[in-house]
Each structure stands twice: as structure tokens, then as C-alpha cells.
Amino acid sequence: MDQSELTGGYIFDIQGFSVHDGPGCRTLIFLKGCPLRCIWCSNPEGIKPFPEPLYKESKCLFDLFCIEACPYQAITVHGGKGDQKLEFDRKKCSECRTYDCVKACLTGALAKGGNYMTLDELYARIVHDRQYWGDQGGITLTGGEPFAQPEFTGALLQKCFKAFIHTAVETCGNIPWKDIQPSLQWLEWIFYDLKHMDDALHKQLTGVSNKLVLENARLIAAGFEGRLVFRLPLVPGMNDSEENIKATAGFILSTGKNELNILPVHHLGREKYLLAGYTYRLPGFEMIPREKLIEVQNLFTQLGVKCYLGSETPF
Ligand code: SF4
Ligand code: SF4
Q1: Where would you tag: which of 54, 81, 270, 278 has the fewest CB atoms within 10 A of its CB?
Q2: Tell me: the pLDDT tens digits for 43-60?
Q3: What are 129-162's pLDDT values in tens digits?
Q4: DSSP 3-state assignment of 110?
Q5: Pocket of ligand 1 contains residue 155 by CB under 6 Å
Q6: Distance 183 CA to ligand 1 centre (A)
Q7: What fold does the segment set 3-48+115-309 form as a domain?
Q8: Nearest ligand to the C-alpha of residue 74?
Q9: 52-113: which CATH topology?
Q10: Is 101 touching ligand 1 by the criterion CB < 6 Å?
């Protein structure tokens, strides 16, 4: 058996025809697992490292086939007729490898969030998309956090790079350097998230310190030969202060780079929180107005940073 057939990883989505995550038309590959818990995360089903059951109550008939099928007694039913609710013991589900509940559900109320794919299976899927990319396209690995599965990510990037497929990654940066560095030689673009320059506020927003994030950003900027574009998910009232914008611009310029893509945080992931059994943490949040975005963009520009808003990028 070829070594690449033995290498595999956990993927929770593949999307073709993306035009916002690197040059040209691209295939986005979403990898499972993330060390951060950003309060605005729009892909909560990507946080855990393994697949998990996603439950859509509106499709549920409460026939309880899933309860009978689950080998771990992880599902309980509450309430009376007309007012029933299923509850999942997510700790047990996170250790489950059978997903028998999903197989037993006939209505589609349960789905498996994520799948294991071998490198060869994923590569075949990528090659299938190649005909749609045009001259400039390729793949962008995102998630979750691609470097949370370092061997698989490295092997995938290497295989694509050697086949002249343009490679990009979007990373949160909070990963040991030994798990990032080996993949850099197979990458052409990196999108690198900066969420807050103040360490205490970074912890509050993401659950982790920004020290490793900033340290890795400096290392990548110093040694990476491809294009490094920083990204700032902008959340009104949380990281859009003048102080944070000035500190972010100062940091970017100190690395010798000068490109930033601002991503206004949106509500699109809200529904997925319910499916995956998480609590949505931005219930009263309003999208950042366009005028405020322009204001932030102008400030970055004055400070010497090339700042692109959302999908309004030159790539
Ligand atoms: S994912 Fe596994 S443990 Fe969880 S309910 Fe389904 S069968 Fe049970
Ligand atoms: S098997 Fe599906 S439809 Fe039936 S109770 Fe379970 S989730 Fe609901």
C-alpha cells in the first residue's frame, strides 16, 4: 500500500468555487479541530477534532430510533408528548467512533459533522475541481485549524504543491512552531489571523493568550517566501478600538509585511451552534455598519497598511 493511502485526516466540509480566499477560483477544505474558542466563530462544527452528531430538531419525529441505536446511552429524551426534547451527552459523543445514532435516523434530523478521508481520497476530490479553477486558482485549507492536523496538512500541501496546484492556508497561528514550520515549503499564500493585540482581551475573546500567535507571525514573516496576508475578524465593541487598530498596524509593519484583510463578523454560523449543541455567544450583536468599516480601513491606510474590506480584495 502506498504511504499516502495510510495518511488521512478529519474534514468537515469541502466547498468549490470560492473567490475570496486566495487568487482565482478555489476549493476550500475545512479541517476539524481548533485550539481557540473565539466567541464569534462561524464554524463551531469545526472546533472538535473528531466528527460529532449534528441534530436538527425541526426534522425530528421523536421515534427514538437513535436512542435505541446508541451503544453509549448518550441520548436522553425530556418532556411530554408535543413538547419533547432530545439531549446529547456531548462528552460521550466526542469519544464515539460508531455514529450509530446517525445511521438509525431515517429523517435526516441527525447528521455526522465531519468525516475521515485518506490523502488519496481528498486529492482525487481536489483534482476533480481543477478543471473549474482557471489559471490562478487552487486550494485553501481552513477550518477549524489546518495545523491542528500537522502531518495530514503537510502531506496534502506537499502532494498538491508538487502537482503545481496553488496552495494557501488560513491559520489562527496558535499552534506549536514545530507543527507549522515543516509545511511552509509547500505553501504559496498564508492568511494569518490577528484577533486582538492586548493579551488579556485576546484571552477573553478567544480563550488563549496571543503570545504564541504573535511569535509565530514574526517567524513566518521572517522566513516565508510566499505571500502573507494578515486577517482581522472585526467585532464591534470588541476589537475595533483606535488603540487596537494602531497596535495591529504597528505589529504588521514591524514584521516587514503590510497587507491586512478585515473580515466583518456576521451571524451566519448561529444556526450551526444549535446543531452542534453549543450556546451562541453573540445573541445581541449587530453587524458592523459599512461607514465604520470604511473608517477602520482609512485608519489602517493612514498608518501604512494596505487594508482590504471583506471580499473586496485585489485577489
Ligand atoms: S454520536 Fe455515538 S455516542 Fe453520540 S449519540 Fe450518536 S451513537 Fe451515541
Ligand atoms: S432517530 Fe432521528 S427522528 Fe428519530 S428521534 Fe432520533 S433524531 Fe429524531
Answers
A1: 81
A2: 999 999 999 999 999 999
A3: 999 998 889 999 999 999 999 999 999 999 999 9
A4: strand
A5: no
A6: 34
A7: TIM Barrel (3.20.20)
A8: 1
A9: Alpha-Beta Plaits (3.30.70)
A10: yes
